[in-house]
Design brief:
Distance between the termini of chain B: 5 Å
Order of helices and strands of chain A: HHEEEHHE
Number of domains of chain A: 1
Number of strands of chain B: 7
Number of helices of chain B: 16
Radius of gyration of chain A: 19 Å
Helix content of chain B: 40-55%
Largest sheet of chain A: 3 strands, antiparallel
Low-confidence stretches of chain A: none
Strand content of chain B: 5-15%
Shape of chain B: globular
Oligomer: heterodimer
Number of strands of chain A: 4
Number of helices of chain A: 4
Strand content of chain A: 25-35%
Radius of gyration of chain B: 27 Å
Low-confidence stretches of chain B: 142-158, 377-389, 391-405
Strand order of the largest sheet of chain B: 3-5-6-7
Order of helices and strands of chain B: HHHEHHEEEHHHHEEEHHHHHHH
Largest sheet of chain B: 4 strands, antiparallel
């Protein structure tokens, strides 16, 4: 299953996402910032012994909500850490996709990022796999 | 009672300047180096700080000269300034991107055993060539300077595996449990919002262990393992990996990942559960933010121990959870550095009062060491320990009440 575009953009290198948005912003038009903030998100988990849910800890995040001034379509972006510019750039791309503005270059960019992340994932998976052992002969 | 600090601003400023002179300055490069080169230290600070923010944990370490307690305190202090924006969707351990997974209980666990990135099976020999400047070029590629730091992205494999305990439960080796899958995240007990009360909920226990101080958890767990407690378990599964922090899009409701974070968990198992007719395994569990094998193993042991009767303090929830919080315990320890002049002076006054009383009594009764009780201010030490404390307070309030502020 293809990851959600927000997942790809949140995981992609922030400088690349920001640079792309700076390049494409003139084609998207004016954007209003509705919300931009850092905060924390609580992460629940479940234990193995009794299947009880508990809070593992909190995650620092940045999020932004923007509105395209012409179409009035809103977009949302979020990422780990406190990089509000990264979150805002994601929100602008989300709004543009929802408003169907500059769809082709945005989708191309997201696909490129997805492929790069997939390559990293595949390489690391191979490296991890190379450490698999048989405890019978360990 | 403390004496309020007045004045001394110049000395305080000079002390801070001297601190930075002796410990070198830090900059963005220092922070990035710590984050990239000391991930386990960063993970420990994040786990104990209970806030996943690698760059801030690295900054805290840089600022404090590597003092873990201070770094954890700074991270928790920063966390307290941030609003809680949301609850993520619960982690699915089965979908965890596994980097390392071992079991000491079973050779052939479903999915197999993966050593992952570890030095467990390598020689622990100092690489002196590095400090002698004779080290060969590193065998691994140098990190790409334009690549994101761990706070911005994690690149993880796609290895997903079911927990060993699920396989055991399906095989009838573990008791079946009725999970409350409908419980909303905001309804889960939260020790950051409610004080710990005992006996506490399992959710509060596991959250407390997750943010507990590694050394404290290890010390209590080790005491238990060595024989002071009753638990000597086997590691059912130890796993390190990445999980996606899943949120829902506020406009569409679609799930998406905020990014990937490092997490670890341990299951430990013993064989004394169940009944004579159907003996079963018992499981202990501990998980934490970041990769921390020692803490999760010792924590899972303590989780199991805290369900047992109490021949040892590590079997007591209150003892374990209260004494392993890094900020509470280190804070109480270092608070003794603060001025205690009034309380200590009060103790001295009481001590001198006893001397005066003794000499007065001696002049009246002779040798007062033979007196057992009954004379104000001259209780024998052994009697203080077994006497009614409220009665003692009436007689010698300074001694009884001024030990702690």
């Amino acid at each position: 299953m293809t990851p959600h575009h927000l997942s790809i953009l949140a995981r992609a290198p922030a400088p690349d996402v920001k640079a792309f948005v700076n390049d494409i912003l003139p084609f998207i038009g004016p954007v209003d910032m509705l919300k931009s903030q850092t905060g924390i998100v609580m992460l629940p988990a479940k234990d193995s012994a009794k299947e009880v849910k508990f809070h593992l800890g909190e995650i620092l995040m940045a999020e932004a909500t923007v509105c395209l001034r012409i179409s009035k379509v809103e977009g949302y972006g979020a990422c780990l850490g406190r990089d509000l510019q990264h979150a805002t750039a994601i929100a602008i791309l989300d709004a543009a996709l929802r408003a169907e503005v500059s769809i082709e270059p945005i989708q191309t960019f997201i696909e490129e990022q997805r492929q790069q992340l997939a390559q990293f994932d595949a390489k690391l998976a191979r490296d991890v796999e190379s450490t698999r052992v048989s405890m019978e002969t360990f | 009672m403390y004496v309020a600090a007045r004045g001394g601003e110049e000395a305080i400023q000079n002390a801070e300047t001297l601190y930075h002179q002796l410990n070198t300055e830090y900059d963005l490069n220092t922070v990035r180096l710590i984050e990239r080169n000391m991930p386990y230290l960063v993970d420990r600070v994040m786990g104990e700080g209970s806030l996943y923010a690698p760059d801030l944990a690295a900054l805290a370490l840089a600022q404090t000269g590597g003092d873990i307690y201070e770094a954890v305190l700074m991270l928790r202090a920063y966390r307290s300034t941030q609003p809680r924006l949301a609850y993520a969707l619960p982690i699915s351990w089965d979908e965890m991107n596994t980097i390392r997974r071992i079991s000491a209980a079973f050779k052939d666990i479903p999915g197999g055993q993966i050593l992952g990135p570890t030095l467990d099976y390598s020689h622990r020999i100092l690489d002196l060539a590095v400090i002698d400047n004779k080290s060969p070029a590193p065998k691994i590629d140098a990190p790409d300077p334009i690549q994101p730091t761990t706070s911005q992205a994690e690149f993880a494999p796609v290895t997903t595996l079911a927990r060993v305990s699920e396989w055991q439960r399906a095989a009838g080796l573990l008791p079946k449990v009725n999970a409350d899958d409908k419980q909303a995240a905001r309804d889960i007990p939260d020790v950051t919002r409610e004080p710990l009360l005992f006996p506490t909920s399992r959710a509060a226990r596991l959250q407390s262990l997750s943010r507990a101080e590694t050394g404290g958890v290890l010390a209590l767990g080790y005491a238990n393992m060595r024989g002071y407690g009753a638990v000597h378990p086997t590691i059912n599964e130890l796993r390190l990996g990445y999980v996606d922090v899943m949120m829902t899009h506020p406009m569409t409701g679609e799930p998406f990942s905020l990014g990937r974070i490092r997490v670890s968990y341990a299951e430990v198992v013993t064989t004394f559960k169940g009944s004579a007719q159907k003996p079963q395994l018992a499981l202990g569990f501990c998980a934490t933010l970041g990769w921390n094998e020692v803490k999760t193993i010792a924590g899972a042991m303590l989780d199991m121990a805290m369900d047992l009767p109490e021949p040892h303090p590590s079997h007591t929830e209150e003892y374990v959870l209260y004494h392993t919080d890094p900020v509470e315990s280190s804070g109480f320890c270092i608070h003794y550095k603060l001025p205690h002049y009034v309380t200590f002076g009060s103790s001295l006054d009481a001590m001198r009062g006893v001397e005066v009383s003794n000499s007065a009594a001696a002049s009246y009764y002779g040798d007062v060491s033979e007196l057992k009780a009954g004379l104000p201010g001259t209780y024998a030490e052994s009697e203080l320990a077994v006497s009614d404390l409220s009665a003692i307070d009436d007689v010698v309030p300074d001694i009884a009440l001024s030990a702690h502020p």
